[in-house]
Amino acid sequence: MRRLLAAAAAALSAAALVALPGHASAASSPVPEFDFSACPAPPANADPGTWRCEAFVSQGVLTIGDREIQLGEMRLTFSEGEVDGKFAQVFGELRHTPAPVRGAFGATMQLKYGGYSDFLSNDERRGELDLYAVLRHPLLPKECTVGTLDAPLHSVVKDDPAVPFEVISQNLKTVKFGVVDTQLALPRTTGCGPLSPVADHLLGLPSASGKNTFKQLTYVQFKPL
User: Fold this and answer.
1) Domains in the chain, number
2) How far, in Å, are 51, 154, 193, 196, 199 from residue 1 at the CA level?
3) Which of the residues 1, 3, 104, 128 has an alpha carbon 20 to 30 A from that of 152?
4) What is the annotated signal peptide range for this record (predicted)?
């Protein structure tokens, strides 16, 4: 059993569940096509004429210590407006295609919605979102994650000065900006079975707040509802 576990650990180490260093380039990212099919309807008591759907398309990079993972494209939709004169919002969905992890021979990381969001921006942050990450590899069980739906990762994103806010179009209104979270805390993996210590070691987990960076280059298009 020990030999089998050691061999599996060695194979997982060879697969290297971490991406090679890379950098997202704002200059090389074309304006994407937007999909409003997952827009949630306003609540029944919504104030007429105040609601709109927002479709986000982002390119993300997650840095854990000195390890950098290119997350690729993420899509998010939600609706916002007013109810009785007060701001309200309804979450739609988060879609993230499993991101191949370079050099990992089939390993991927996929972000999932963790059940909480707040997209009302203020002077201190642009928004908040709960997430968890599903890890996939032939040697890992399907339940292997970083964070869970019951104990998600809480991300608070702020404006990234490297990618200033820019209006791309007024019809439909489309904007571009960058956001960054430098305080994201990452726990040990969950549900990864006997190879949990190996996965933790390769990903550098746990990793305390202040040692990680979650960056996104984001395009948003607005559609009246």
Assistant:
1) 1
2) 59, 38, 14, 16, 19
3) 104
4) 1-26
* Three-state DSSP string of 40-105: CCCCCCCCCCCCEEEEEEEEEEEEECCEEEEEEEEEEEEEEEEECCEEEEEEEEEEECCEECCCCC
Residue in the block written with tokens 């991406």: 19
User: What integer pLDDT is reported at residue 101 of this predicted model?
Assistant: 66
Q: Are 68 and 204 in contact (CB under 8 A)?
A: no
Q: At what angle do helices 2-15 and 196-203 cross, to 10 degrees?
A: 30
Model pTM score: 0.84
Given a cut of 90, whether residue 165 has pLDDT beyond it is yes
pLDDT in tens, 114-145: 999 999 999 889 999 999 999 999 899 999 99
Q: Which residues pair with 128 in a beta bridge?
A: 118, 156
Q: What is the C-alpha to C-alpha distance for residues 16 and 203, in angstroms, rounded to an integer?
A: 9
Alpha helices in the chain (DSSP H): 2-15, 196-203
The whole-angstrom separation of Cα 117 and Cα 105 is 33
Q: Which residues of 154-187 are buried (b: 16+ CB within 10 A; e: fewer)?
A: bbbbbebeebeeeeeeeeeebebbbbbbbbbebb
Q: Which domain holds residue 171?
A: 2-224
